[in-house]
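=== RUN LOG ===
request id: a7f3
mode: sequence -> structure
chains: 1
length: 120
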Amino acid sequence: MRYMLLIHDEEKAWNDLPPAKIGAVMEQWGRFQAEIEGSGVMQSCARLKPAGTATLLRTQKGKARVTDGPYLEAKEQCGGYYLIDVEDLDAALAWAQKVPMAVDGAVEIRPIWEMEEPQS
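=== RESULT ===
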């Protein structure tokens, strides 16, 4: 079953970290990245640019409205993701607990809604 691990953290807190702490966290990311790549469960991953670079499209009454980000009132933003293919939710949770940002941020585990193939 495929799951998206959405990594939420506080952008400002990250930007305010001292260089030594950033280096330590990046080492943790390197170890995590090597482990998840080596396991074969990772299908893709990416770090997202800051929330302020986002654009939101909403359609209301048939008209498209485009707004520049950020949009949420929350202090945590989605900063990246991992798409994994694992046996079940317990396995997805085990990987989510290893994400370095899970310590100070949050990791949302969301199952992928697989589209059924058309019947012939």
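=== NOTES ===
The chain is about 30% helix and 35% strand.
Helices lie at 11-15, 19-39, 89-98.
=== END ===
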